[in-house]
Amino acid sequence: MKKTVTNLKGVYAGGISAGIKANGKKDLAYLFIPGCYGSAGVFTKSAFIAPPLIVTQGALGQGTVKALIANSGNANAATGKTGLRDAKETARLAASLLGIKPREVAVASTGIIGKFLPMDTVRAGLRTLLRNPLKRDGTRAAQAIMTTDLTRKEVFVTGSVGGQRVSVGGFAKGSGMIAPNMATMLGFLVTDAKVDSTTLRSLLRRAVDDSFNMTSVDTDTSTNDMVLVFSTGAKGKRVASAQAKREFLALLTKACQHLAKLIAADGEGATKLIEVHVSGARSQREARMIAKNVINSPLVKTAMHGADPNWGRVLAAAGKDPAAKVDPKRVDLTFAGAPVMRRGQVVPHDRKRIRRLMSVREVPVRLHLNLGDGSAVAWGCDLTHGYVDINVSYN
Amino acid sequence: MKKTVTNLKGVYAGGISAGIKANGKKDLAYLFIPGCYGSAGVFTKSAFIAPPLIVTQGALGQGTVKALIANSGNANAATGKTGLRDAKETARLAASLLGIKPREVAVASTGIIGKFLPMDTVRAGLRTLLRNPLKRDGTRAAQAIMTTDLTRKEVFVTGSVGGQRVSVGGFAKGSGMIAPNMATMLGFLVTDAKVDSTTLRSLLRRAVDDSFNMTSVDTDTSTNDMVLVFSTGAKGKRVASAQAKREFLALLTKACQHLAKLIAADGEGATKLIEVHVSGARSQREARMIAKNVINSPLVKTAMHGADPNWGRVLAAAGKDPAAKVDPKRVDLTFAGAPVMRRGQVVPHDRKRIRRLMSVREVPVRLHLNLGDGSAVAWGCDLTHGYVDINVSYN
Fold this sequence. Notes:
The structure is a homodimer.
Chain A: E1 12-16, E2 28-32, E3 38-43, H1 51-61, E4 67-74, H2 80-98, E5 105-112, H3 119-129, H4 138-144, E6 153-161, E7 164-173, E8 186-191, H5 197-209, E9 226-231, H6 242-265, E10 273-281, H7 284-295, H8 298-305, H9 311-318, E11 332-335, E12 338-342, E13 345-346, H10 351-358, E14 362-368, E15 374-381, H11 385-393
Parallel strand pairs in A: 4-5, 8-9, 10-14
Antiparallel strand pairs in A: 1-2, 2-4, 3-9, 6-7, 7-8, 10-15, 11-12, 11-14, 12-13
């Protein structure tokens, strides 16, 4: 069986159907780390930040957070003062049921925007959910935060950090790939490495920049997006040296990228994952911009749906922002490993063969700019009838 | 009958099927203003600027341009040195047939990217097209630049400028609404007002910023986008005073907006035009950014397709860029004239009635931010199965 977050010592989680969703699916999850050593979060930059995020930011600002309550089916967004009161009450009730302080509880919501949380349902649900809070049901928690997601998204990676074997486990949700909004992106990670909150905060920002923030231009801008990371501190030696931090960052980034790819592959209506590698840019910043412009182009996304090595669309998307330099005469481009352009010239290629290579679930597109050392990877999905169907009727 | 560009004195135009398009439709157009007084252009900012644009920029830089040759069916983009040679030869041959200098001819191309122009076809086509270059077939010219466009796009407006009645006529093409590329945006305008090239240049930039550049975030970035304006100078008094310039700018902007709306309404697969008005922003710049973010949100576009007054999606899109301020507590929002939000609070509304109001060909969305005096309008279309179909198979 695949490992999940509750395979980490001292980490408890679970999920139930509380009745927030009309369809009876799981909709209320918790994560509980009684002996939590450090915690940190990264949040949406949207002006319309939702009340649960305000509560969670407040909690993280006051010390280490030990528990998370997350619901799906209702985003508690654009709900004003009532929404804030409801988010606070959720944290308070969960705290009393867990025997911890309200400011030690983070809350997260995802689902429909602009409706108040059904608090009677939430209260009753919390009492059921936390009756025995020492469950090891990480997978049920992962299920309970899904909305339009078709697949559950879990990760568990292990590596060497500061000479110790440590792990990072976690789960995530998100499937609105182009401009998430109803389909919030949430990510929750736990490590048994001993990392303090300050270090977690700076490393999480960097890990998120190279993972969740590269799945779509807009993933960092939904009203409810958040990624949290917790340290149990179970492995005794603190991650303090520069090298240990680098090693931990690499492991955390790996975990985040795994979840980010699962999210991209599960984009609404998606039939395939597209992985855009940009290298040779003038800077990493420009490489990111270009990779995102390519992954977000609806014309590239539809071409990918048709397994079409449409280099014209990729180049047009790559070159569209004058702030990120692309020299048409220096570009190398491959689809699914097959070269179609070298130094700006079309390479003779067997179109049918490349179409076959592209007719798979994961298609890498590599763009080398021959201008510098900047590189970045972005993940996305194709654009299909399914996307239109889901979003026309989602209400 | 509706007026077209050739209703202006001294303006000649026509269009034929030269055989560049495989389907036998019109694909070669000309515009000829033998006594042209002034000319100017605005061009794509894409790094992958196509050869015809380089030739046209060069011509405009050397003096007044008197003629335009435009073809559809082939963009002559990403064609390198061969493409540049072909564009130059097109201008040279047209010049010799018209009895003017090569540097007095602008060229424009739209259609598939990455294939060389079929020059034998182009040469033979030009000879037919320009056999009698004093035709008054503005409408045929408008037809001959269409690609995936379903409708012809022409404009003719008249107004008072510096105490004289003057007109602006023109035509345009473009239908790939989200991220044009194969579907280049072209606009050609002619006025009988006497406006010199320098003035035309600065006013055209401003008119385009408030029209074509507001139809989609990406219209200004396709490899082949260009808008040209010509002055016949037929109306004797030169547009020189600040007031006359303002008046002319208003008329030119009106003409450009008319064409821009036709382009937005004819977006690939579109069933309706969406007009997003943002007012009360801190600045015009921020109003533009916000209007574009709303009009470009795939979630807003799909909601519009479903006649869904989904204010959550509009707000999420409006608030997504921290650089453009939105205060959630101050926002007023209407769909098709019906208020759904006032000062950030949802207004009780009859959802079914609003859905009926939105089930029309043109839907205005008004967002008032109550922060300042900045305002902007952006035009776009809904996102449908049709868009996916067109772009999966377009190759």
